[in-house]
Amino acid sequence: STIPTSVTEKQFNEHILPYLSTAKRGFVCQIPLYKVFNYILYRLHQAAMERITHRTQSARADKKEISWQAVYYHFRKWSADGSLEKVWQASIHTVQDALDLSQLNLDGSHAIAKKGGESVAYQGRKRAKTSNILPIMDTNGYILASTGMVAGNHNDAFNLKPHLQTAFKSMKRLGLNITGAFFNADSAFDTREARKVCFNYGVIPNIAENKRNRKAPKRGRKRLFNAEVYKRRFTNERSFAWVDKFRALLIRFDRKDANFLGAHHIAFAMINLRMYWLQKFESVHSKNYGIGQFLPSLAPSG
After folding, report:
1. Rama region for 116: left / alpha / beta (φ>0; ψ in -120 to 50; rest)
2. Which of 284, 278, 272, 270 is nearest to 4 (CA)?
3. Rg from Cα positions in the chain
4. What dihedral angle (degrees, nearest 10) is formed by the CA atoms of 150, 137, 167, 41?
5. CB 128 within 8 A of CB 122
6. Burial class (CB in 10 A: 0-12, 13-18, 19+), 186
7. How many Cα atoms within 13 Å fall on the side-chain side of residue 73?
8. Strands 182-185 vs 204-207: parallel, antiparallel or unpaired
9. Which of 46, 146, 149, 184 is 20 to 30 Å from 244 by CA-CA measure?
10. Close Cβ partners of 88 (under 8 Å, ≥ 6 residues apart)
11. What is the DSSP string of the chain?
12. Could you list the pLDDT tens digit for every one of the 302 residues in the chain?
């Protein structure tokens, strides 16, 4: 199924609104917040906030329903105050019964930063300024944890120890039992510190050996490595393909880390909730209640 590019009012009220900060005094948005959220989704799919201008026309052709500046105001606010991260974490609780925690898969995603910004640096391999983020997924491709932003001039293993510690703690706080899970990562993450963190949290490091780390073969017993389990990391690529549907994440325009992370949190939540909504749709459709009650449309509301 496709990644939702909009949500229904029912979906928004159930899975998103409870975790967003809303105005209690002063400015109150003149249109329903679910429409604002759909405009944000549209912006993430189209990569430029200004492009929503032609989507914000009301019944009167001479009056916009909402300006793109107002939409971006809500996006910045929800990114900065952690609301969008809470939406993503709540999505993990929603799909908890569908998670397969026998494997945890780690990989990195580089984004070219056209306008520079925080945690941005030149990367020779990309021949551009980039920033990097490292999500952790379960066997089925649900996104369970992630690092913060890492400047592109650092290798994938830069500061990996504190990043993994934070990610594992986050999953524990969410009530996810990761003890005994295989932790799959490619050779770029083959460090002694990373393996030690895995063992400390009861996770089995299944990391491809980086031969450049040694000048001579290690004596004694070989490190544990299950090649068959490692091959099942293909779900990483599928999840990254879903993330790539959000064009604003392929090329970074947000200068602030909080905003770019907030955009990722929305994408992660939509990826996690897609199968839940699809199952609800199929359940309702089987009872002939009509399509569209639970499955989002392919165009934003408004």
Report:
1. left
2. 270
3. 21
4. 60
5. yes
6. middle
7. 11
8. parallel
9. 184
10. 143, 265, 266, 268, 269, 272
11. -PPPSS--HHHHHHHTGGGS---SSS---SS-HHHHHHHHHHHHHHS-GGGGGGG-B-SSTTSBSS-HHHHHHHHHHHHHTTHHHHHHHHHHHHTGGG--TTEEEE--EEEEETT--TT-EEETTTTEEEEEE-EEE-TT--EEEE---EETTS-TTTTHHHHHHHHHHHHHHTT---TT-EEEE-GGG--HHHHHHHHHTT-EEEE---GGG-SSPPPSSPPP--HHHHHTTHHHHHHHHHHTTSHHHHEE---SHHHHHHHHHHHHHHHHHHHHHHHHHHHHHHTT--TTSSSPPSS---
12. 577 788 999 999 999 999 999 877 666 778 899 999 999 999 998 866 555 544 554 444 456 788 888 899 999 999 999 999 999 999 999 999 999 999 999 988 889 998 889 999 998 888 889 999 999 999 999 999 998 888 888 877 888 899 999 999 999 999 999 999 999 999 889 988 999 999 999 999 999 888 766 656 666 567 788 899 998 888 788 888 888 889 899 889 899 999 999 999 999 999 999 888 887 766 665 555 444 444 454 444 44
Length, in residues, of the chain: 302
Answer whether 70's CB lies under 8 Å from 54's CB.
no
**Token match 């650092």: residue?**
154
* Residue whose C-alpha is closest to residue 52's, from 73, 28, 29, 36: 36
How close are the terminal C-alpha atoms of the chain, in Å? 23
Distance CA 150, CA 147 (A): 8
Six-digit token string for 178:
């990761």
Token representation of residue 60 = 């009167």
Which tokens sit at 127?
């021949």
CB under 8 Å to 190, separation ≥6 — which residues? Answer: 157, 207, 208, 209, 210, 213
